[in-house]
From TrEMBL:
Protein name according to UniProt: 4-diphosphocytidyl-2-C-methyl-D-erythritol kinase
Family matches, as InterPro entries: GHMP_kinase_C_dom, GHMP_kinase_C_sf, GHMP_kinase_N_dom, IspE, Ribosomal_Su5_D2-typ_SF, Ribsml_uS5_D2-typ_fold_subgr
EC id: 2.7.1.148
Ranges of residues in domain GHMP kinase C-terminal: 211-275
Catalysed reaction equations from the record: 4-CDP-2-C-methyl-D-erythritol + ATP = 4-CDP-2-C-methyl-D-erythritol 2-phosphate + ADP + H(+)
Active site per database record: 15, 144
SUPFAM superfamilies tied to this protein: GHMP Kinase, C-terminal domain, Ribosomal protein S5 domain 2-like
Amino acid sequence: MTFNSVPLAELAPAKINLALHVTGRRADGYHLLETLVVFAEFGDRITVTASGEDSFFVAGPFAGSVPRDAGNLVLRARDALRGAYPAHATQPVSITLEKHLPVASGIGGGSSDAAATLRALTRLWRIPADAAALARLALPLGADLPMCIAGHPLIARGIGEELDPVRHFPALPMVLVNPGVAVETPKVFRALASRDNPALAPLDSADTVLDWLGATRNDLEGAAMSIEPSIAEVLAALRRSGTAFARMSGSGATCFGIFDSAAAASRAATAISSEHPGWFSTATMTRT
């Protein structure tokens, strides 16, 4: 079998939980969620190339925070795909991760990197697997992976594996801000005051996005703030910058602000970066 020697690249977009309701807990300890998820135009980048031997390189502003060992989700995704399709995945590969998203930051960086790796290697190795097959393969690697493989606006339920696409969801001008701290998701869940909360209200097409979001929550926000109080500072900075809506994403510490226009988002990101040079701040648009 011949393989494409041209490098193949995939964006690993930031995953933003616009709303996240914790609705219960399974007997095995996994929490049940209902979450509206969108993906940004900004993110990491995975590049794969046929090679004489397997290799893994990391570059970018957050490269120093990325583990290079076999526990990295990128390498676990490569090995899972190779194990599932051994007849196709015979060519060694060089994988490069450009890390632009802060780690352990509530915007799905590791999961999105792994999903992008699966998409890129499926193309390189010419594997006959669609998104649904990749999602089934990826779920044991992490509950966020199926939604990251989908990569479009959706509502996720269960532990994250039950996906319902949200059609015609608008692109949102947005600023992502992280105070430069990593927050461990298990600690946030352990700090939850309540695990049996009301589910998301139906997403009615007659509602504006902001009206609907105003009636929703991120049930992890209070718990995350109890661990990392700087999250409140980030939300305050976003509100001072003129956002129409601000909230923490996922288990934190990254927060997002929705703006009226891309220009307004760009101005806000610049202002926040100037005021807090140690923070990560970027303007982006969400993908439709």
